[in-house]
Write a structure and sequence with these properties.
Blueprint (H helix, E strand, L loop, with lengths): L2 H16 L17 E3 L2 E3 L5 E4 L2 H4 L8 H13 L10 H12 L5 E7 L2 H16 L3 E5 L8 H6 L14 E4 L14 H19 L4 E7 L14 H11 L3 E5 L23 E4 L11 E6 H6 L15 H16 L2 H23 L3 E7 L2 E6 L11 H13 L2 E2 L1 E3 L2 E4 L7 H17 L6
Parallel strand pairs: 3-13, 5-6, 5-7, 7-8, 8-9
Antiparallel strand pairs: 1-2, 2-3, 4-10, 9-10, 11-12, 12-15, 14-15
Helix pairs in contact: 3-10, 4-10, 7-8, 11-13
C-alpha cells in the first residue's frame, strides 16, 4: 500500500474516532477524503480526482484555491490575523464597501457574522427591534441555518427537533410541480400562493408581524424558482401591512444565479439581505446582513444588542475583497449566467428527454435541480434507496454530486467551463442509465 493511500486511511480512522459530524447518525461514517482542490476539481491523498458539481455546500462559487484569494489571506495573515470588532480596520471597510456596491440604492451598512445562520439570526433581531413587532413568517420549504431563530424559521425536518425559539409562523410558498394550490400554470401558482400568504398574514394579525423571511430562490428545498409576480406580490403585501421583507441570499447570492444577487433577476427590493457562502466562497467562515438605511438609522442612537468576537474578522475580510475583485475582473458572474443559459440548461433538458426518471428540470445560472420521479404521471418521488445508489454511482465515477431528497442539484462553481459541463453530463447520463437497472 502506498504512502498516499495510507494517508487517506489515516484520515478516515481519525475521523471515525474523533470527529462528530453535522446532521447525521455518527455510526454511518463518510468515506470520501478530500485533501486538495483546484478550480472545479478536488483530490484525495492518493490522487483520486473528483469533478465538484456540488460546490461543496453550494458555496465555492469562485472555485477551489483561487490564487488571488489564497494570496490575500496569506498577506493579511502576515499583517494582522485578528482584531476586535469595535476596532476600525481597513480590510473590513473595504469588504463592506464592495458588498454595498452590489446592493440596490438605499443600502449602505453591513453587519458581519460568522456564517449564514447568524446572519439570519441578526436580521431577525434587527427586524423585531425596528418594527417593535414579534412574529417572523417564513416558508415550509426553506433552510435558514442551524441556530436559535434561524433553525425555527427553517421549513424542513431540521426545525422540528429544535423548536425552542418563539414567534415563528410558516406558510407555503410557490412550487408548481407539487402545487399546494391545485395550480396548473405559473400565473395561477403565483396568484394563489399570494392569496394564501395574505390569509396567513390576516389570520396572524398584521400588526404582530415583524418580517417575512424568504430565500429569494429556495435552495436546499429544491431550487424553487419563484413564478412571475410572486416576489413583487410579497413585497406589496409586506408594504400594505408595515411588514419588513428579509431576503436570504446565503445560497443564491454572489453569482450563483448568474447575477450578483438572485433578486436582481426579479422585480423586488428587500429591507434586509442576508449573505454568506459565495461572498468569499467559504475560504474563511463569514456571513452578514446588508441593512437598508431606515433600519440602520434605528440604531444610530439606540444600542444594537448583538455582536460577535469575530464580526469582521480580518482574514475573512481580506478574502471577501479578493474574491469579489476577482469575480468582477474575471467576469465570473457573467460566466455563470452564460454557461447556465447556453450550456447547462439545454444539456439538462436533453438529459430529461432521454431519462424518464427526470420529472422536472428547473434553475438558472449554476443553480439547477433535477427532480427524480418513480413515475412521470403521478410524480411520485424516486425512493431513497434508488437515490442512494445514484449518489454512490456518481461519486464512483468521479463526480461530487449534491443530492437532497429525490433531487440532484447541479450546482458547480460559477467558473465552470462548457467542457466541464459536458464531462459531468456524460457521468449523469451514464449513471441514470445504469444505476436504476432492475428498478420497477
Ligand atoms: N440560509 C440558506 C439559504 C442556506 O442555504 C444556508 C446554508 O446552507 C444558511 C442560511 C446557513 O448558513 P451557514 O451554514 O453558513 O450558517
Amino acid at each position: 500500500e502506498s504512502l498516499t493511500e495510507s494517508l487517506d486511511e489515516l484520515a478516515r480512522e481519525l475521523d471515525r474516532a474523533h470527529v462528530f459530524h453535522s446532521w447525521s447518525a455518527q455510526a454511518q461514517p463518510s468515506s470520501l477524503v478530500v485533501a486538495s482542490g483546484l478550480g472545479c476539481r478536488v483530490w484525495d491523498h492518493a490522487g483520486r480526482e473528483y469533478l465538484d458539481f456540488s460546490s461543496q455546500l453550494v458555496n465555492v462559487n469562485i472555485g477551489h484555491q483561487h490564487p488571488a484569494v489564497v494570496q490575500a489571506i496569506r498577506e493579511q495573515a502576515e499583517l494582522l490575523t485578528t482584531i476586535a470588532p469595535a476596532t476600525v480596520n481597513l480590510a473590513r471597510g473595504e469588504a463592506a464597501k464592495r458588498i454595498v456596491s452590489h446592493a440596490p440604492s438605499g443600502f449602505h451598512k453591513v453587519f458581519f457574522t460568522n456564517g449564514g445562520a447568524d446572519a439570519n439570526e441578526n436580521a431577525i433581531r434587527m427586524a423585531r427591534l425596528h418594527t417593535g413587532r414579534d412574529k417572523i413568517l417564513s416558508t415550509y420549504r426553506s433552510y435558514h441555518g442551524n441556530t436559535g431563530a434561524a433553525v425555527v424559521a427553517t421549513g424542513d425536518w431540521r426545525r422540528i427537533p429544535n423548536e425552542f425559539a418563539r414567534g415563528h409562523v410558516h406558510f407555503f410558498g410557490p412550487y408548481l410541480y407539487r402545487s399546494e394550490f391545485w395550480a396548473e400554470t405559473p400565473e395561477q401558482e403565483s396568484e394563489r400562493a399570494l392569496r394564501h400568504l395574505e390569509h396567513v398574514i390576516l389570520a396572524e394579525g398584521p400588526s404582530s408581524i415583524a418580517a417575512i423571511l424568504l430565500e429569494t430562490i429556495p435552495g436546499t428545498a429544491g431550487i424553487l424558482t419563484p413564478p412571475p409576480g410572486y416576489l413583487a406580490g410579497v413585497r406589496e403585501l409586506a408594504d400594505r401591512h408595515g411588514i419588513l421583507l428579509i431576503l436570504d441570499e446565503v445560497m443564491c447570492g454572489f453569482g450563483r444565479t448568474g447575477r450578483w444577487f438572485a433578486f436582481d433577476g426579479y422585480d423586488v427590493r428587500p429591507d434586509l439581505i442576508t449573505f454568506a457562502k459565495g461572498v468569499n466562497s467559504g475560504y474563511v467562515p463569514v456571513g452578514g446582513v446588508l441593512i437598508s438605511d431606515p433600519i440602520a438609522a434605528t440604531f444610530d442612537e439606540r444600542v444594537f444588542p448583538g455582536g460577535l468576537t469575530y464580526s469582521g474578522h480580518p482574514l475573512a475580510m481580506a478574502s471577501i475583497v479578493a474574491a469579489l475583485d476577482a469575480m468582477e475582473s474575471e467576469g465570473i458572474v457573467a460566466n455563470a449566467r452564460d454557461v447556465g443559459d447556453t450550456v447547462i440548461g439545454p444539456a439538462l433538458d436533453d438529459l430529461a428527454e432521454r431519462h424518464a426518471v427526470i420529472g422536472e428540470v428547473r434553475g438558472v445560472g449554476v443553480f439547477w435541480a433535477l427532480e427524480l420521479v418513480a413515475d412521470r404521471e403521478t410524480r411520485e418521488p424516486l425512493a431513497p434507496s434508488a437515490m442512494g445508489r445514484i449518489k454512490s454511482a456518481l461519486v464512483g465515477r468521479g463526480l461530487l454530486p449534491f443530492v437532497m431528497d429525490n433531487r440532484i442539484h447541479v450546482v458547480p462553481p460559477c467558473i465552470v467551463t462548457a467542457d466541464e459541463v459536458a464531462e459531468a453530463m456524460a457521468i449523469y447520463d451514464e449513471v441514470l442509465s445504469t444505476a436504476l437497472e432492475g428498478e420497477g
